[in-house]
Amino acid sequence: MNPTNSNPLPEGYETFVEELKDRIRSVQVRAALSVNWELVVLYWRIGRDIVNRQKQESWGARVIDRLSLDLDKAFPAMRGFSRSKFEVHAGVRRSLSEEEFVQQVVAQLPWGHQVRILDAVKDSSQREWYVRQAFENGWSRNVL
Fold first, then answer.
1. Confidence bin at 101 (pLDDT 50/70/90)
2. CB atoms < 10 A from the CB of 11, how many?
């Protein structure tokens, strides 16, 4: 017996379901943006810490290689701890030095957008312009 065929739906039910679906989708989007924000800030801070250690303690490639292995072992399900990723994190940190800017604008963009801008635009003021435009206009990586 199919309950949708045997019992008529109460008035307004379909609207109620649509409103719930919209709310669920909205929360899913906000959750994804929140996770993105946290990861971007984490990656920027990892880059900051690596750059600072390299300056203070003359860290070379061997330390970064070891760091990559240790973090991959500690967090096997998480990506972003390869040597090349650490180089990207440090590069993003070097190019975006203001943590406030990172938290307010840059963290709103997916990491892939940031890497694309970093790779393509070398001038820091132009890079900031692209970051702001991508954020304000919702540009995809293809548009960038």
1. low
2. 8
Question: What pLDDT shows up at residue 70?
Answer: 94
pTM, two decimals, is 0.62
How many other C-beta atoms lie within 10 A of the C-beta of residue 117?
25
Cα(7)–Cα(25) distance, integer angstroms: 28
DSSP codes joined into one string, the chain:
--HHHHSPPPTTHHHHHHHHHHHHHHHHHHHHHHHHHHHHHHHHHHHHHHHHHHHHH---HHHHHHHHHHHHHH-TT----SHHHHHHHHHHHHH---HHHHHHTGGGS-HHHHHHHHHH--SHHHHHHHHHHHHHHT--TTT-
Q: Are 105 and 135 in contact (CB under 8 A)?
A: yes
32: which 2 tokens? 């994804």
Single-letter amino acid, residue 15? T
- List phi, psi (to 5°) of 108: -80, -15
- Longest Cα–Cα distance of the chain, Å, equals 75
pLDDT of residue 47: 85
